[in-house]
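Dear U.,

For the methods section draft, I wanted the exact inputs and outputs in one place so we can describe them consistently. I've listed the two proteins in the order they'll appear in the manuscript figures. Please don't edit the token lines directly; just add comments below if something needs changing.

First protein:
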Amino acid sequence: MVNFIIPLMIIVGILAWVLRPGKRPTTARTVAILATVIPPVLVAIAAIVFQLLHNAAGKTWVSDISNTCFIVGLGLIGVAILASAGFAIARKGEVAKGIGFGICIAVVVSIIEFALLEGLAGV
């Protein structure tokens, strides 16, 4: 698994550097970043909370609800990728770059969420 995560983090880091917002990002770019990052972060928080509640009940495996929340978070990232492609085709470059930067942040959040969920499950 580490053989996959390290190159993924390097690629995400490079993309985040290329797509970084700069010192004074436009309003459209800022809104695109927030709209891309907030839903996966909320789903990740919900997944971790459900896993903690599952562990508090004395169960040591990954909760089905946490697993579903993780998959929903990945689906949100997929939808963001499609939205970024759509905005790029429509020549809305600032919005597409903002969504791309938000995707980078969401991928990092998903990797951290995955590690936390597996750690809490005792795997």
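Second protein (the one for the lower panel):
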Amino acid sequence: MTWFNRQSRPVQIILLLIPVVNWIVELVVRWSTWLKKGGLIRLIICILTIPLGIIFGWIDLVWVLLFKHLFLQ
């Protein structure tokens, strides 16, 4: 999570634009956030990210553009 947040905004957007890369970024960021903070909602999002990671990646792309952080993070 902190690795992604430390990146510049253009790098974050590029990482979320590339389909396979955004899925990998989603998995790493979501699971590391759950390991650090825990919580049932985060766990559900982590599990849903496995099959739906690319969709979450596109949602996060818009979310980063609008709010400068990932959705539900």
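Candidate sentences for the figure legend, describing the second protein: The chain has a mean pLDDT of 89. The CA atoms of residues 4 and 11 lie 9 Å apart.

Thanks,
Y.
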